[in-house]
Design goal:
4 helices, 6 strands, about 35% helix, globular, binds flavin mononucleotide
């Protein structure tokens, strides 16, 4: 059986308006349902009205999900940061991990914080451009 090629995408975008907790919960619920169905995993950050998302999965399915995401009217100004083939998943256990923070600092459990630290960790020898941009986005609080 052919092994599907795994691809990964990172993008940033802005919410069209500040989304309520209920709206985010619904978005996540729908995203997780569909991602499970399509074998997509990843993480979504929501900071000060901006999104940063990392998604990974079989190339064809990733295209389908990315199209759904791009066409969602709840956000605008989507900027693709990277699209790279990957050897293995970084978020295999998460149909869509979620993290948010406000000006007071992190909202969420220490476990969630570890998760974010994980993706912000840059390999010392060859940091990918996506991670650098991601890191500065995170440092600036998404503004
Ligand atoms: C920032 C952002 C991230 C999203 N991520 C995903 C995702 O990972 N997977 C997915 O299937 N849909 C994703 N969506 C789409 C929404 O989950 C969903 O389509 C939307 O809430 C409308 O729900 P509906 O599909 O029931 O109309 C995303 C939307 C936005 C704005």
């Amino acid at each position: 059986m052919p092994v599907s090629e795994l691809d990964s995408i990172v993008y940033v975008s802005s919410a069209v308006r500040l989304l309520s907790l209920e709206e985010i919960s619904y978005l996540l619920k729908r995203a997780r349902e569909r991602n499970k169905e399509y074998g997509i995993t990843g993480v979504l950050l929501y900071i000060g009205g901006n999104f940063m998302q990392y998604i990974e999965g079989p190339k064809d399915n990733l295209d389908i999900i990315y199209k759904i995401i791009r066409e969602d009217g709840q956000h605008k100004g989507l900027i693709p940061i990277s699209r790279e083939a990957i050897e293995s998943r970084q978020f295999g256990d998460w149909s869509m991990a979620y993290q948010t923070r406000d000006v007071e600092g992190y909202v969420g459990s220490p476990g969630e914080r570890k998760l974010i630290d994980l993706i912000l960790e840059t390999p010392s020898d060859n940091p990918s451009a996506a991670r650098i941009v991601l890191h500065s986005f995170w440092d600036r609080g998404g503004s």
